[in-house]
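Record 1 of the preview.
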Amino acid sequence: MKFFLVLAAAMTLGSAVSLAADDTAAAAPAKGACKADIQKFCASVPHEKGQVRTCLTEHSADLSDACKQRMAAHAAKTN
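->
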């Protein structure tokens, strides 16, 4: 029983991490292509409910090329 609880917790955590990654960098994941841009433009933005993605979109003209590409790839994937 304990094994199944641990397995369920790990699966839930994995899902949460995946969703958080989508949120933070348009998912760049934040630790990837958009990390520096998030730190530069969106450091004070709460990392919830798409607020980081919105912040990055507002600064789209100023983002690094790698982050712009990641944002575009994510947008194409979600549409």
